[in-house]
């Protein structure tokens, strides 16, 4: 069974930084993509950043230049460095991984979510 475990959320003031981490574990044969989504109260879940294996990284326009996604392939871990945070970045942040898993094939997996709150 695959698990995605997130950490790093919290409460910060506008202009400060946070770093989110997400570690994938289980019978993973291959990682297709790893990334981050977020969902603010009353809004739909939206893409923040995604990093395909061997492809181009994609960011939401609202975070370009402020957020950086990175991966440690040896640890099956994805990070999201968030700088210059704004109150509108407040949301629950979800890790997502598209994986090929032993005996299950290709599927999308989600973390439990971590709250990021930015005060003005």
Describe the structure.
- With 120 residues, the protein is an all-beta fold.
- It is 0% helix and 61% strand.
- The protein has strands at 3-7, 10-13, 18-25, 28-39, 46-52, 58-59, 67-72, 77-82, 91-101, 105-110, 114-119.
- The strands form two sheets. Strands 2, 4, 5, 6, 9, 10 and 11 form a seven-stranded mixed beta sheet that branches. Strands 1-3-8-7 form a four-stranded antiparallel beta sheet, with no helix packed on it.
- A hairpin with a 6-residue loop joins strand 4 (28-39) and strand 5 (46-52).
- It starts with a strand and ends with a strand.
- The model has no long low-confidence stretch (mean pLDDT 96).
Features:
120 residues, mainly beta, seven-stranded mixed sheet, 11 strands, elongated
């Amino acid at each position: 069974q695959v698990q995605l475990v997130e950490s790093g959320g919290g409460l910060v003031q506008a202009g400060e930084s946070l770093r989110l981490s997400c570690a994938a574990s289980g019978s993973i044969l291959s990682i297709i993509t790893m990334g981050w989504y977020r969902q603010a109260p009353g809004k739909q879940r939206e893409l923040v950043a995604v990093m395909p294996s061997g492809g181009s990284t994609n960011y939401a326009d609202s975070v370009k230049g402020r957020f950086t996604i990175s991966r440690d392939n040896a640890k099956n871990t994805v990070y999201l460095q968030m700088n210059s945070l704004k109150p509108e970045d407040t949301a629950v942040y979800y890790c997502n991984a598209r994986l090929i898993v032993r005996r299950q094939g290709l599927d999308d997996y989600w973390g439990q979510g971590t709250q990021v709150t930015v005060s003005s």
